[in-house]
């Protein structure tokens, strides 16, 4: 195996394994900083093991690999000179049982931090579609009908001034959501796994798209923490949020984290039966964090107003699944992060890590095997 922390751009070989072709210009920043670095880019079928799609000699020569992946990492014995693997995704729950993770201690870094701008805009889009009853306007336009105000907004039309936004997982995505929320006049409540009691602990030390997020952690009006369902229910009952945004990694601890008891704690404490205000759930993380049946029940019973889901359980969602037809639930097929800037930003994270690998510095977005993310 290669030795992490010793990167020589004149001797090392960067192998980029991508699912689609892209312009060579996207790699210009890396070439500009490391002009002697050998770079090989291959377009491969990422649904198959890389040993089946990449020539054996190229895998063996690679010292740094950057890749799209849905379920596989190269086997340790196929990459004897490897020093770092970098993924173009933020979540790695689908590959944590791969031998590179379980049988080596070599570094794996992610592209966490690049997703904040597109995902937060997707969240805002869905908030406004719901709160401004955009469906009625869209259907009216399709019918060529100039609908009146009563048809457009019989009740429940609302803006976000003074609303409470609870963000579960105040990482790069959560911080950009917070930035947008306060611009609407809302208040932000952060919920993290561990306590953030000092100014230093509230800082974002990951990759930050310039001009975005909450680098110093100053946006939330309150910080809360916990890892148990009991602690989550306490958070929901005390903060009484209008919005709950789930931006957590999928781990054994977060699987089925939001279930019937959590919906009950949220809706009963926040929205008395006489209140027209109801909560709205947004999940952009992983589907299994939310119990699908419990979500359907909560929306159909009007315990909450609705939900925006970019992820589902199961995923892909079968055509016959009842979730598709629940009024108030807005679904997209795990595409909230898609945008023209995606891979250029992912390569920028890689560039920073090549620099730190060369200098022996701390890698950005380093996967923590103990935590599972």
List keywords for this structure.
12 strands; 2 domains; oxidoreductase; Rossmann fold; oxidoreductase activity; single chain; NAD(P)-bd_dom_sf; D-isomer_DH_NAD-bd; globular; seven-stranded parallel β-sheet
Overview of this protein structure:
- It is a single chain.
- With 373 residues, this protein is an alpha/beta fold.
- It folds into two domains: 13-114 and 341-359, NAD(P)-binding Rossmann-like Domain (Rossmann fold); 116-331, NAD(P)-binding Rossmann-like Domain (Rossmann fold), CATH 3.40.50.
- The protein has helices at 28-33, 50-53, 56-61, 99-102, 116-131, 134-142, 149-152, 172-183, 229-239, 260-270, 292-300, 342-359; strands at 13-18, 38-43, 64-67, 84-87, 108-109, 164-168, 187-192, 222-225, 243-246, 279-283, 304-309, 329-331.
- The chain has a seven-stranded parallel beta sheet with strand order 8-7-6-9-10-11-12, with helices on both faces. The chain has a five-stranded parallel beta sheet with strand order 2-1-3-4-5.
- Strand 10 (279-283), helix 11 and strand 11 form a beta-alpha-beta unit.
- It starts with 12 loop residues before the first strand and ends in a 14-residue tail after the last helix.
- The model has no long low-confidence stretch (mean pLDDT 93).
- GO terms for molecular function: NAD binding; oxidoreductase activity.
- Keywords: NAD, Oxidoreductase.
- Residues 128-200, 226-336 form the D-isomer specific 2-hydroxyacid dehydrogenase NAD-binding domain.
């Amino acid at each position: 195996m290669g030795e992490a922390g010793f990167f020589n751009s004149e001797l090392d070989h960067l192998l980029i394994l991508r699912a689609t072709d892209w312009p060579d210009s996207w790699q210009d920043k890396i070439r500009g900083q490391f002009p002697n670095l050998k770079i090989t880019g291959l377009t491969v079928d990422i649904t198959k093991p890389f040993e089946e799609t990449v020539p054996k000699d190229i895998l063996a020569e690679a010292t740094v690999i950057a890749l799209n992946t849905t379920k596989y990492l190269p086997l340790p014995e196929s990459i004897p000179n490897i020093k770092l693997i970098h993924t173009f995704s933020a979540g790695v729950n689908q590959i944590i049982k791969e031998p590179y993770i379980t049988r080596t201690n070599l570094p794996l870094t992610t592209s966490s931090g690049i997703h904040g701008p597109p995902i937060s805009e997707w969240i805002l889009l869905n908030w406004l579609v719901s709160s401004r009853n955009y469906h009625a306007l869209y259907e009216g336009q399709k019918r060529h009908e100039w609908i009146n105000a009563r048809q457009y907004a019989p009740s429940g039309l609302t803006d976000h001034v003074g609303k409470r936004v609870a963000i579960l997982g105040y990482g790069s995505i959560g911080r950009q959501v917070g930035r947008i929320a306060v611009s609407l006049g809302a208040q932000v409540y952060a919920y993290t796994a561990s306590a953030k009691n000092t100014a230093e602990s509230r800082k974002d030390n990951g990759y930050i798209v310039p001009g975005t997020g909450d680098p110093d952690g100053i946006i939330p009006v309150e910080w809360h923490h916990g890892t148990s369902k009991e602690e989550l229910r306490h958070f929901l009952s005390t903060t009484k949020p209008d919005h709950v945004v789930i931006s957590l990694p999928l781990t054994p601890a977060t699987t089925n984290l939001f279930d019937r008891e959590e919906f009950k704690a949220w809706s009963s404490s926040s929205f008395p039966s006489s209140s027209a205000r109801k909560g709205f759930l947004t999940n952009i993380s992983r589907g299994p964090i939310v119990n699908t049946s419990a979500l359907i029940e909560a929306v159909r019973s009007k315990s909450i107003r609705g939900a925006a889901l970019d992820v589902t359980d199961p995923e892909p969602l079968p055509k016959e699944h009842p979730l598709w037809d629940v009024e108030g639930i807005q679904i997209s097929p795990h595409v909230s992060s898609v945008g023209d800037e995606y891979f250029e930003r992912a390569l920028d994270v890689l560039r920073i890590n090549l620099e730190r690998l060369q200098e022996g510095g701390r890698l950005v977005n380093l996967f923590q095997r103990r935590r599972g993310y």
